[in-house]
Protein 1
Amino acid sequence: MPVARPVKGPDGSRPRFSSDQIGFLERAAAEYGDIFRFRLFGMPVIVLNNPDHIHQVLVGNRHKYDKEVLLYKLVRPVLRNGLITNPGGELYMRQRRMMQPAFRPAVVARFADGMTDETNSMLDRWRDRYRPGQVADLSAEFSELTLHIVTRTLFSAQVGETARRFAEAFTETNDILGRFFRFPFPPLSVPTPAHRRLRRAIRRMDDCVSAFIERSSTPANAADSAGPDAGTGKPGHGIDLLHLLMNAVDEEDGGGMDFEQLHHEVLNIVVGAYETTTNAMAWAFQVLAERPDIEARLHEEIDTVLDGRPPGMDDLRRTPYARRVVEETLRMYSPAWQFMRRAREEDVLGGHRIPAGSNIYINSYILHRRPEYWEDPDVFDPDRFTPERSKDRNRHAYMPFGAGERICIGQHFALVELQLVLLAIAQRHRFTLPPGQPPVRPQPLTTLHPGGGVHLEVRPRSGAAGGTPPAHDGDGGEGQDGRPGPAADPRSAS
Ligand code: HEM
């Protein structure tokens, strides 16, 4: 039985993955199709591009695969044994069982108003920050927004300063780890200056997570979590997601999570939720600025459905075009663009032998653009996700959140957040490309960034949706605090 063919250049040489990861994979997929192999830092890696083979690895034969591979080993010193990096097995299954209920759609729905509030707070800050037509650094804005949203839903809103310190430490950690695939470095145990900086950044992230948890464990906050506002993410009203995790009980053994495991899981959730959603938002608005036709349809839907009020959970099903814009963004610019598995035992995929111990590499950026499954794959076309046009497509050809038992636990959270943020921002602002701006290209780091960031001219929309929609509830408009900017954020837990 054949094994996957090795990638070779026209002269028989081995092209390098690390110098141009996307180009390398695109060229290899065009030439070799469903399956091929290459060497990554001396290790053989098998790349899967066929949706059914990928489904077999992630779902059908999942018991034959685990996460004992380079990609996760690399980030394990940071994320330890949380859900993202846990190699698999009993501990993993127990954690996932306990945590799953906290991410059910009905629970996520309770965070929706907090997401919209945070977005409108950001837009209120923009009034002071940007003159109409001024260029905004949307990557930086969305990075701050997603962190506010995740910390608000996990820990309540009173975490401004800690969240900022966490963001700095996270960015530094990510910068160092993100360089690995371009400039592979020695193991983290070797005390290079970069590794020492990394250790310090990890310690700072740990301190922030401990501060979040300790603050949430105070009797006042714990009592709030049982009150009528629990789960709404209202400032000072209960901790919601964190309390759900603190109180989670395994249905099989009746036990809960110890502090250390809780700490790791919280870190994994924040990391899982932060950059992925930030990048998706940034890509979505970059595309809207490039495609006024799509922006106009979105505006029309928003103005008809919302009629000037802020979006809420019920509006998500009433705004199918916005949902399709989100889906198409996640197709073309899948933020968690690569994942890996190790074959624990031999398998056969599409007639190819997968020896035990093989490293399997899956890349959703490439999968989502394979012309065999996607018509005009390089065109941003939200309507490809209408039910009519989706029905004949191989449904495993789209997996921005992965698949199977390790599918993203935060996928409902992310989809609700992305759609609400899109609605709330496009309701009040429109965006244009600065003159002469070069095209924004994907930059493959730990997640798929818009290279150089997204910088767009921002203008309030005229008419009904141009002003600040009223605060949606009676919490004193806490989310609309007119913060002048990150450095002056008054909401601090520390
Ligand atoms: C657009 C946003 C997001 C994308 C594209 C995304 C994508 C993914 C993907 C592809 C995986 C599976 C990786 C694998 O199988 O190796 C994953 C896992 C995970 N994600 Fe997300 N994610 C997003 C948002 C979130 C959010 C908002 C959270 C938390 C609130 C989150 C938390 C996690 C966690 C904890 C895991 C590990 C799950 C497990 O193995 O059991 N993610 N994500």
Protein 2
Amino acid sequence: QYITLLRGARLLLINGFSFNKSGHIGNRGYRYTCSQYKKKCRAFAHISSNDTILKANLEHNHLPTQYARVKDGKYIKLAQYITLLRGTKLLLIDGFSFFKSGFIRNGGLRYTCSAYNNKHCRAFAHISADDVILKANLEHNHIRPKYKQVTDGRYVKVELAYTQYITLEKGIKLLMINGYSFSKNSRIAKGGIRYACSSLLSEKCKAYAHVSANDVLLKCYTEHNHSPIQYVRTSNGKYIKVSSSKKW
Ligand SMILES: [Zn+2]
Ligand SMILES: [Zn+2]
Ligand SMILES: [Zn+2]
């Protein structure tokens, strides 16, 4: 069975799981890969030109994605929800979370990205009374929040690494993440900056962070192979490095 999404993508459905066309298998047909390949699902199917399954791995590492039929016989992904420990219900779309922010016609609800207050993210979604995503802006200016399932199926937000900056006596600005300092390393796309662990040279530490032009932590690797460098704040608000114990 095939379904066509509202935006035109054609998906293959097998046992309720959806697959995207990912290539040819010679001139015999097409290869389809599970739509959740980003979740490292390895399910696939080889479909001949007369629509028979030639070969397939139908073992998925996730639940089927639910689709609902909308106008013109097209389909749209159903909204999913998670409930936080305190009872707040959040909408999840593509790993991003949204909170209820208003009503729309016919009993639907408007949802706003959870990062609206912190990051001024403008992503939103309109959800019909039967949980279909009617309309959405899914362009986010931040990374996906992480939620972890805890007791009775509820979730807690795993806090993103906390970032702040300190300025050294000599005027050098360092990025601090979880007590470790990072120095400006290079420019990345859209005016962002790549920071490398301040112990890159001395310890060959591979930790790094990508920060966008508007100070959002886009991506980071924070496994350090050393203990953090200690800094002390001086009377003028600037910081100086405290000699590391290695030198003693
Ligand atoms: Zn799968
Ligand atoms: Zn957002
Ligand atoms: Zn490091």
